[in-house]
Amino acid sequence: MLSLEKVEVAIQGARILRGVDLELPAGGRLALVGRNGAGKTTTMRAIMGLVPLVGGAIRFDGRDLARVPAHRRTALGIGYAPEDRRLFPTFTVAENVRLPAELLGLPRGELEARLDRVFELLPELRELADRKAGALSGGQGKMAALARALVTGTRLLLLDEPFQGLAPALARRYGEILARLVERERAMALLVSESNPELLIPFVDRVATIERGEIVGLAPAPRLAPP
Ligand SMILES: Nc1ncnc2c1ncn2[C@@H]1O[C@H](COP(=O)(O)OP(=O)(O)O)[C@@H](O)[C@H]1O
Ligand SMILES: [Mg+2]
Question: How much is the pLDDT for 100?
Fold first, then answer.
């Protein structure tokens, strides 16, 4: 479904991604793990069309995404929760979550059905729906950013360091939500990054390691011992 082939990204003349190859089939769950500055965010931004490629290609269902402008990529069923959340602070939570779906011009019934499914997964967001995004705590903001990504990301979901900065109780809750999500959306592909893979192991089937803009390892996720 998603493939990165020898993707090269340069920023101000500096090579940031060097020949990144990644494959993600429908229903695949891939962790992208690497320390700060390794290139995780740049990989996600490249998939979303937010940084130009200087080499290689990114395909979605075989289609070269170079021909799909950034603002049309969500229409393909791709959702992205950036590490810095990027919510509109003066809009309410509900408005932030609806906005990308409204921009797609989804029929009203389809939009409401998607919102219902998202709020069913994240019931705590219903209580925050009328709050301004600028007034959310960091953890609440992460939930709202996940909800927004889910509304468009019916086929492919990109989560950039979702656990980063979450207090332990919220990280556990976020983990529960992800577990339910991957259980419910069997055909959805998931690409999720972290600097520490431990939190991701329960939700992924493979772990790709990135170092200085290069994929240096790809391994099946270790299976947890049965309880
Ligand atoms: N807008 C930018 N301008 C200059 N350098 C950048 C920019 N974005 C990323 N970089 C550099 O690219 C490298 C990879 O960054 P990033 O993809 O954010 O890594 P990660 O998400 O793994 O921490 C880092 O060396 C970072 O300094
Ligand atoms: Mg990053």
Answer: 87
